[in-house]
Amino acid sequence: MVNSIIKLVVLMIFSQSAVSSLREEDFRRSLSADNSKSFLYNLLNAQIKHRVDFLAGLSQQYNFTEAEISFINSTIGSIELLDNLMSKIHSSLQPDYRYKNYENLSVKYGQIVERFNQEFMSNHLSIVEMDYLNPIILYSKLNTLNNNGTEIIESIKENALRLIDVYSYDVSLMSKHDSSENYQAKLTRFCLENLSSLRNEIESLNQFSDHLSIMTFKTLLTRFDLILRIAAGGP
Question: What's the mean pLDDT when you consider all of the chain?
Answer without folding.
Answer: 84
